[in-house]
Design goal:
Number of helices: 13
Number of domains: 2
Oligomer: single chain
Order of helices and strands: HEHEHHHEHEHHEHEEHHEEEEHH
CATH topology of the largest domain: Alkaline Phosphatase, subunit A
Helix content: 25-40%
Strand content: 15-25%
CATH class of the largest domain: Alpha Beta
CATH superfamily of the largest domain: Alkaline Phosphatase, subunit A
Number of strands: 11
CATH architecture of the largest domain: 3-Layer(aba) Sandwich
Length: 430
């Protein structure tokens, strides 16, 4: 080889390897999701083939906490911080506004992502939060046959130029449960099981359940159309999806607006449209803030200073991952008053009520759910392994006194260390 050839080879070897292509990112947000109405979680009546496929082919994370109402949940996803840190604690608007600096789509747009917000949105002007389109939020997105064509145009124009991030939040399966006729017909003969302790009209209960099942089927069908569109555009293989609910729902269970698992907990599915997807399932404890950290990590970005999340990427690759030993949460009344602190691990659940509230003070929940009221100072301890519906409070049993004290200490430590501020004096004395 000539000296010129050797010099060219040496220069080539000195050049850094090309950076790996950044994936397209889609955050799929179900609104008032009832996990008990999903096929991949065991409901034989459910018609959710798209989500069932994603859960089967991708990574299913079964134990994640969101928030008990939607606006704080979405603000947490945008910031990677908990409600008492970012300040959006209830669905009050416009009493408090979220600061856009450092939020998810802003960071991704600054890194070169084409960004689109489809559907549910609380925080005002989209452009200030990093979204290139649409010009203003569309609450009808994917729910009334609107908005999806605009998203398809955006992707056709922008996807060839840059990776994209889509906030896909179609306000489904949120009430009112009035799905299109084709979904109503699909469940016309379904006979949902009525809980043994249900005290109302069983026929009315079944009718409400059928409508809710139909709404979940509608969500699934809309997601299928979106995935098909990405495949048509040739973008599916380069796209990573994260599916999660903003808060829970349950036809006759205390859920939305409460610290119950049915209100806080959501499955997370991570799925890639490309080859090499590894199927897995995990009971690792996951928080919404971890979803934010993961999306940024996939884009090659570090979390902003003060963010609380841990990227799930190592877990998803099957590598050693320092997970959470406990999940912590906070629940507020509709006017933004702190109502409860809560925590859980793989088995135990702790709740500490810091103010007195009843159902009318909380976010409106399912009409068949028992009235939820608690007094300041009340404590709850549940063995979720034996009592997943949280019906037997063990807090007053002497055999659990030490465990209760440990949970109280760790929950208060989390609250104080993350800037939660002082709790009412009466609560501190209990």
């Amino acid at each position: 080889m000539s000296w010129a050839g050797l010099l060219a080879l040496a220069l080539l070897l000195q050049e850094p390897a090309p950076a790996p292509a950044r994936p397209n990112l889609v955050l799929v947000l179900a609104d008032d999701l009832d996990p008990r109405h999903l096929g991949f979680l065991g409901n034989p009546l459910a018609r959710t083939p798209t989500l069932d496929r994603l859960a089967r082919e991708g990574a299913l994370l079964r134990t994640a906490w969101a928030q008990p109402v939607c606006r704080p949940a979405l603000a947490t996803l945008l910031t990677g911080r908990w409600p008492h840190e970012h300040g959006i604690v209830a669905n009050q608007f416009p009493a408090r506004k979220l600061a856009p600096e450092g939020t998810l789509a802003v960071r991704l747009a600054q890194a070169g992502y084409a960004t689109y917000c489809g559907g549910k949105w609380w925080e005002g002007e989209l452009a200030s939060f990093g979204f290139a389109a649409p010009s203003e939020p569309d609450p009808r997105f994917a729910r009334e046959g609107e908005g999806t064509a605009d998203l398809a145009r955006f992707l056709a124009e922008r996807a060839p130029e840059a990776p994209f991030f889509v906030w896909w939040a179609p306000s489904l399966p949120h009430t009112p449960h009035h799905p299109p006729v084709r979904f109503v017909r699909a469940f016309a003969e379904a006979q949902p099981e009525v809980p043994a302790d249900f005290e109302g009209d069983p026929d009315e209960y079944r009718a409400v359940e059928r409508a809710s099942l139909a709404m979940h089927a509608w969500l699934d069908a809309e997601l299928r159309e979106f995935i098909d569109e990405l495949e048509r555009l040739g973008e599916l293989a380069d796209t990573r999806f994260v599916f999660i609910g903003d808060n829970g729902w349950g036809t006759a269970l205390n859920s939305k607006g409460t610290p119950r698992e049915q209100g806080l907990r959501s499955p997370v599915i991570v799925w890639s449209g490309g080859p090499g997807q590894k199927a897995s399932a995990s009971d690792a404890l996951v928080d919404l803030v971890d979803v934010t950290a993961t999306l940024l990590d996939w884009a090659g970005l570090a979390p902003v200073e003060g963010a609380r999340g841990h990227s799930l990427a190592p877990l998803l690759r099957g590598e050693p991952w320092q997970g959470r030993e406990q999940l912590f949460g906070e629940v507020y009344t509709r006017d933004g008053t702190l109502f409860a602190l809560c925590a859980r691990d793989e088995r135990w659940k702790y709740v500490q009520y810091v103010s007195t509230a009843r159902a009318r003070d909380l976010s409106p929940g399912p009409r068949f759910a028992p009235e939820f009221r608690r007094r300041a100072g009340a404590l709850e301890l549940f063995d979720l392994g034996a009592d997943p519906l949280e019906r037997t409070n063990l807090a007053k049993q002497e055999e659990h006194a030490a465990r209760l004290a440990e949970w109280r200490a760790s929950t208060l430590a989390w609250w104080q260390e993350t800037g939660g501020g002082p709790l009412p004096e009466a609560q501190e004395e209990r």
